[in-house]
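SAMPLE LOG
Freezer: B-3
Tube label: C17
Construct: single chain, 121 aa
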Amino acid sequence: QVQLVESGGGLVQAGGSLRLSCAASGRTISSYNMGWFRQAPGKEREFVAEIRWSGDRTDYRDSVKGRFTISRDNAKNTVYLQMNSLKPEDTAVYYCAANPRGSPYRQYPYWGQGTQVTVSS
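STRUCTURE (predicted):
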């Protein structure tokens, strides 16, 4: 079983940048698809970005394309989410998640505790 711990959240002004990190332990993430999700107050959790276990494919929700970049460093067992040109509507708790290779598409059984991102206008 893999454990995930997010970090890097905080308060930033609109137009600013943050880099979230997701440190994994318990298992190497090299055979896991890794994703970032977010949940704003009063809203359902939504998909943000995903990177395949092979690292050769990434997917993003439309509203973050061109602003967010997901990456992975298997040697450090860590996944990152670089967020640029942040907007107030990006304010949410951001969660890291892991999906074992071969598991159903975007069915993530492992989750971190989340990190708060607040973007002020």
